[in-house]
Amino acid sequence: MTDDFMDSPEFQELIKEYLNYLNSALPGIHSNLSDKLYADVYKFGHNIKGTGTSYGFENLSEIGAEICNNIKDENYSNLGSLLDNVGNILTEALA
Prior knowledge:
Elements: H1 3-6, H2 9-34, H3 38-51, H4 58-72, H5 79-94
Helix pairs in contact: 2-3, 2-5, 3-4, 4-5
């Protein structure tokens, strides 16, 4: 992608929509985690793993990969903190 495209108003609007979508989905993902619906949490992690970098958020992609890896390894103890990190990134980006 060229810098011109990344800075275009159209792409900036897509980024905002992406961030708002993730932000609106996050409470449900926290609920899924509380309900031990790990497949749903995995899908969310997989989604941000695959899309974060495309929207300029490599850190979201990295966290998504961590979520997926933790669930694959049945290591559920860090998932809440990883989701909180996603929320912090979204809060900062949407400010």
